[in-house]
Design a protein that fits this description.
Layout (H helix, E strand, L loop, with lengths): L1 H12 L1 H15 L3 H23 L2 H12 L11 E5 L5 H7 L9 H12 L4 E5 L12 H11 L7 E4 L5 H12 L7 E6 L3 H10 L5 E5 L15 H23 L11
Parallel strand pairs: 1-2, 1-4, 2-3, 4-5
Helix pairs in contact: 2-3, 3-10, 4-10, 8-9
Length: 263
Amino acid sequence: MSAILTKLLWPLLNPAALLLTLLPVAAIGCLWQRSRRLAKPLLASLVGLLLLVSVLPPAYWAVRPLEDMLPPAVLPAWLDGIIVLSGAERPALSGARNQPQLNESAERLLAFADLARRYPTARLVYTGAGIPAQAGGVAEDQVAEQALAWTGLETGRVIFERQARNTRENAAFSQALVQPRPGETWLLITSAVHMPRAVACFQAVDWPVLPYPVDYATMGVAEPWLDFDPLLGLRSLNLATREWLGLALYRLLGHTRSILPQR
């Protein structure tokens, strides 16, 4: 239940959504005499916050440490297996258009297909199904299977773990399905900002993995101080809030052994 509620409520409760929702509410409140006293300072604060996020890079500063925390591992000569986490798919749109549609995290599946070709004997695992598909839609794993087939990857090689709804379940359910042996070398693919929480979850189930982060949101260098891009700033704010809160919440719930993954 918690996994479903988290995925359903996050689009409504994320910082960018709240900011963009409260802005017109505060603006309308300024039109009425009774609410003007409270609405004016609220509107000024919201506009100031939007400008801060858009012009200055505070959200960027919060994302970059997460992305740089676990750099891509040096690829070994041998891999026993490769795991990719779901999250690159757009299930509703895929169902509506009857073809796989991907989001800004498509690099997860592209890297997975590329590494599968480079390591032809590695076991391949895709984990995650997301929220059950709505009427007429498809689940994340179905979209991923179709998209991987488009890349030319033989999907019969892939073990699809189709039950996980969050990162903790990605690790736990995949381990139960695959049953990796001690000493095996496995590589984990997910978005760079999400890699610390993902690795911490795999460590919690005693499954050491090599990180292979993709889908970077930052350049790894200092950003210009005056680069007005509200959408990019709001996206960075969302990424930072989701992952830092996720790291803290997972530790609080006992899903991980420490807030940050062990080196």
